[in-house]
Amino acid sequence: MPDLADSELIRVERVGAVAVIRLDRPPVNALNAEMLQAIGTAAAALSADPSVRAVVLYGGERAFAAGGDIKEMAELSAVEMETYSRTVFSAMDVVAAVRQPVTAAITGYALGGGCELALAADFRVIAENAKIGLPEILLGVIPGAGGTQRLPRLVGVTKAKEMIFGGRPVDGVEAVRIGLASRAVPAGEVYETALEWATQLAAGPTMALAAAKEAIDQSTDVDLVTGLALEGRVFSALFDTDDQRIGMTSFLENGPGKASFTGR
Hints:
With 264 residues, the protein is an alpha/beta fold. 46% of the residues lie in helices and 14% in strands. The protein is globular, with a radius of gyration of 19 Å.
């Protein structure tokens, strides 16, 4: 697999059909421009790689990402920040657009930009004692990389306002309770749990998973009729895939849940 990151701030590894993007900027993976651009570059390349069937984002045992690099942003003007936001924070959108299922494995802290990066994933596996939240209000600003948009869609408007207005993070147990994370496990089990889940997804029908992701993500803000039309289009398109033929043939011959998909 080619080196996908020109930066030393992330590493891309493969575990079978799962690609792992490891954030690697000690001590707490503060997200600066170079790191975010490397994440976006890696995510785009992995999305286009048919041999990659699931992706994990992982920051290591100490922290997922404790936030954006405040030193890098503190002296920017409004005009400069608008340019910075377009070129740097777009990495979150690139991660969200990855065709394969993306799981964020969260230990330690996922705050500010770190939380927004995790929100761009499809799933969040979090340590029970981790802290995740959007404390930007305490700096006199608001989340600027998707937090005000993605968080309410997960936890509801009232809870999102409570977290954003108050700047209070939640632990892993509460994150699961409010719908912000999928699973909360002991800190030492986070990476393996996320990898196990990603491996299960990687064994599934890749094209169908991508179609389901597209149908859900693209229909969040449209009316029901438009959403149903989109679902119908992506559903019908799957009947030109190998996995559809494999899945239905296996069902007819062997019953449900026994197909071995190729990802094509």
